[in-house]
Amino acid sequence: MRNINPGTWLAYILLLIPTSFALASNQYSPSRMSLRKILSKISHGGAQAVLENGNEEVSITRSNLYPTTKSESVITERIVGEKRPIKVLFLSADTGGGHRASAEALGKQFMIQFPGSTYELADLWSDHGVLPYRTLVPTYKRMSSRPWEWRLFYHLSNTKLNEVGANIHSKLTCYGRIFKRIESHNPDVVVSVHPTMNHIPLSVTRRLSKKLGKHIPFFTVVTDLGSGHCMWFEKHVNKLYVASDRLYKLARRRGGTPPENIVMAGLPI
Fold this sequence. Notes:
- The chain has 269 residues and is an alpha/beta fold.
- Strands 5-4-6-7-8-9 form a 6-stranded parallel beta sheet, sandwiched between helices.
- Helix 1 crosses helix 4 and helix 8 runs parallel beside helix 9.
- The longest helix has 26 residues.
- The radius of gyration is 18 Å and the shape is globular.
- The two termini are 26 Å apart.
- The relative contact order is 0.17.
């Protein structure tokens, strides 16, 4: 089999998770072809559509799981050809066990597929945020014991107004420290498994790529199933991995994420 880049392996890993294709409705249904055939098509660069929804298709292919610009492709091919160890940086926070569990599951698979690779978990807000971001974890723990308070906070924050305001405020107050933190890891791949760690980290990663002269792909793995907070969805991520039809629609409507950058897959456990 040809050497495969980290983005493709991430799709493989998620497709092989036991909860793969756990869909919210029957409107989005997997292709009838076997998983073995799907993986064969992907690994050989075939443009096989795996899922269909109306007039839109989500194609999981070798060509669209990684950058397509000439300069990025050259860098990608060198890394893939060498099959060298890579440094993966996961962005998460302990607001529920699912985020860390997903990062750990994916990290172990990266180590298997790219022997010698390493991965680290970073909680950017607890370490480098100002109020209220640095209190994210204790606030969540307090609210989780008061369901009504959590529901109120969730719905009030799950708005475009809050998203834009939080993005502007966090960029003005935390951008420099977050840039230094991610730069200190010198990652080859950045994977966010937390809704609050997408907008600023994505901007930082793109800037860091230019500074270091290497392409650093940014992937978001949505660890929710039935619904998702608006801050999960960014337009310019390299790939956005979701586990249900509802999340796919939210990513298209709320994040404006192009359909070719959305991959339907399972939840990593």
